[in-house]
Amino acid sequence: AKAAGGNRFEFADAEADARAITRHGLTNALPAALERGEFFIEYQPLVHMRDGTVHGAEALVRWSHPQYGVLGPDRFIPLAERTGLIVPLGRWVLEEAVRQARVWQHEHGGAALRINVNLSPTQLHHPGLVADTVAVLEKSGLAPGALCLEVTESALIGADDELLEPLRRLAELGVDIALDDFGTGYSNLANLRRLPVSVLKLDRSFTRGMQQQPADPVDVKIVEGIVALAHSLELAVTVEGVETGAQAAQLRALGCDTAQGWYYARPGAPDRIHTLSLSDAVP
Ligand code: C2E
Ligand code: CA
Ligand code: CA
Ligand code: CA
């Protein structure tokens, strides 16, 4: 048993080394990948729970790596964060997603399909955030109210006025700010009033307990409480990770406003957004 344990450790070490080498290689390859256009965006619809119509979509970046195939954001966003490449990469995602939102609007006869774009902490601290965002909106002609920037709750924990100022200015311009992964960041709930946010995105960990029925009663209570709190502060609630019809029905009954998840649609190519017949998915 000892020998096997030893082998396992050697194996684990080798694996850790391989991962470190891959991380190093991926980090170095990021700038050229951006230049060569190896990144692309998948879009996942956000659905009104009330009637199942599409509210908009979240832009989720992927890397089509020549050697490793398609890599998810968890593999490279942290690396891009650490090197600062997230700033030009994030700007590219914003520009491309906003351009796509305009295409959908034209195809839908001007209907205001919204676009959600993720912002990482480094982008929040970058002095060009407001100017870049305004420039992208003006160039595309997209109304600021059709853009929602998603900031994680943990990125705003302990945020001072200096950090919040750019978000306030964007909110004043009409851009929606969503608090992403809400509930995972252990933030001070009283702090919520200070933040220029209009949407809470409830993390998947809170909705998982409703995938099977009967639902986990504690999760039901928590979601009920968060929805009441959010609505009393005039914030909309988006739920993530809706995978089953039972879960959708329960979250809808609890008063959640919009939803996102595999039950409705997985992230995919932009042309899928308007071929989706989401009315079939109304719980
Ligand atoms: P997130 O913002 O919380 O995005 C939601 C994640 O949940 C996405 O993973 C999505 O594919 C996944 N998801 C959606 N519905 C379901 C479901 O029903 N069940 C399950 N199990 N998962 C579901 P993805 O695309 O791998 O993205 C992971 C994270 O990477 C995102 O989490 C976000 O934090 C980050 N990310 C993605 N794109 C960008 C970007 O352009 N910029 C930045 N800064 N971060 C990004
Ligand atoms: Ca997000
Ligand atoms: Ca999230
Ligand atoms: Ca999440």
UniProtKB/TrEMBL annotation:
Domain EAL: 23-281
Protein name: GGDEF domain-containing protein
Lineage of origin: Bacteria, Bacillati, Actinomycetota, Actinomycetes, Kitasatosporales
